[in-house]
Design brief:
- The longest helix is centred in the N-terminal third of the chain and has 24 residues, at 3-26.
- The protein contains 4 helices and 7 strands, in the order H-E-H-E-H-E-E-E-E-E-H.
- With 180 residues, the protein is an alpha+beta fold.
- The protein has 2 domains: 1-30; 34-179, 4-Layer Sandwich (Deoxyribonuclease I, Chain A), CATH 3.60.10.10.
- Strand 6 (146-154) and strand 7 form a beta hairpin.
- A 4-stranded mixed beta sheet has the order 1-2-4-3.
- Helix 2 crosses helix 3.
C-alpha cells in the first residue's frame, strides 16, 4: 500500500474514532467533558543549560495544572522526570515504563490520569520493532521506541475507552512508516 493510501486510511480511522468517542461520551450524563493533553517534555540533559529539567519541571507541572488535565501523556520522560510528575500530581495514577528495558531505563511514554475521575481497567506496552515484545531498534530507527496503552473507565459516564501514547523515531523513515 502506498504511503499516501496508508496516511489516508490512518486519518479516516482517526476521524471515525474521534466521532465515535464524541458520540459515546455525548450521550447519557451531560456536561461530562474531560481534558486530555499530550506533552513532549524533553528528556533531562546537562546540555540544556537554562532549559534543563530542574529549571523547567515546575513550569511543566504548572502548565498541566493550568489546563486542568484529567489525562495527560508525556513523551521523552526519564525516570526522574516521571518521579517528579508523580510528586506534582498526587491525585493521579500513571502507567509507562522505560523503553530500554521495560522497567526504568530510558525514556518513558507515560500516561497519567485522575484517580477521582477514572478507574484503570488494564494497561500494557509494546516495542515498535519487528518482535514487539523485546527491546530493540525497529527497522531503520536509531533508538528503541514504545507504545504505552491503558483502558480506563470514566466513573461518571461508566464508559470505558483506550488511551495510547507513543513517540516515533526522529530519523528512520521506514521505522515511522512501520510504526504507524
Amino acid at each position: 500500500m502506498s504511503t499516501i493510501k496508508k496516511i489516508s486510511v490512518f486519518l479516516l480511522v482517526l476521524t471515525m474514532s474521534f466521532s465515535l468517542v464524541n458520540a459515546s461520551f455525548g450521550q447519557g450524563k451531560k456536561n461530562t467533558p474531560f481534558n486530555v493533553i499530550t506533552y513532549n517534555i524533553r528528556m533531562n540533559t546537562t546540555g540544556d543549560g537554562v532549559n534543563a529539567w530542574p529549571l523547567r519541571k515546575d513550569k511543566v507541572a504548572g502548565l498541566l495544572k493550568f489546563h486542568q488535565a484529567d489525562i495527560f501523556n508525556v513523551q521523552e520522560a526519564l525516570q526522574e522526570q516521571m518521579d517528579d510528575l508523580v510528586n506534582s500530581f498526587p491525585g493521579f495514577d500513571h502507567v509507562g515504563v522505560g523503553r530500554d528495558d521495560g522497567k526504568r531505563a530510558g525514556e518513558h511514554m507515560g500516561i497519567f490520569f485522575s484517580k477521582k475521575r477514572f478507574e484503570k481497567l488494564t494497561d500494557g506496552m509494546f516495542w515498535l520493532n519487528e518482535s514487539t515484545t523485546q527491546p530493540g531498534f525497529g527497522w531503520d530507527a536509531v533508538c528503541n521506541r514504545t507504545v504505552t496503552w491503558i483502558k480506563l473507565k470514566d466513573k461518571i459516564t461508566k464508559k470505558s475507552f483506550y488511551v495510547f501514547d507513543t513517540h516515533f523515531d526522529h530519523r528512520g523513515n521506514k521505522a515511522r512508516e512501520e510504526s504507524a
